UniProtKB/TrEMBL annotation:
Higher taxonomy: Eukaryota, Viridiplantae, Streptophyta, Embryophyta, Tracheophyta
This protein's name: CDGSH iron-sulfur domain-containing protein
Keyword Mitochondrion: no
Ranges for domain Iron-binding zinc finger CDGSH type: 56-95
SMART domains assigned: ZnF_CDGSH
GO CC aspect terms: mitochondrial outer membrane
Single GO molecular function: 2 iron, 2 sulfur cluster binding
PANTHER family named in the record: CDGSH IRON-SULFUR DOMAIN-CONTAINING PROTEIN 1
Amino acid sequence: MASMVSVVGAGFSCGGLGLKPSRAGGAGPTQWRQTSAVVVVRAEAINPEIRKTEEKVVDSVVVSELSKPLTAYCRCWRSGTFPLCDGSHVKHNKATGDNVGPLLLKKPKE
């Protein structure tokens, strides 16, 4: 069986399992054979050096044309509601020792 490892950005390595077509002798119906893959996943810090003295890096921006008073945008790339933050950075930070937090867009008080 064939194996492969493919590397994907943001500090993750992964591969997948799949099926590949195979024709015996080059003629006749296509037969499918299963291939295997090696999957390697390693979590790495997203913020390796910026503002590491802070417990959690969170920035706020005041934008006057927002429909909500506060909107949190994901900066850890793990949110299930990306680009909006769903709090996934908490689990990521515990697993990696990172301190990434959301970008907060705030509507100014009138």
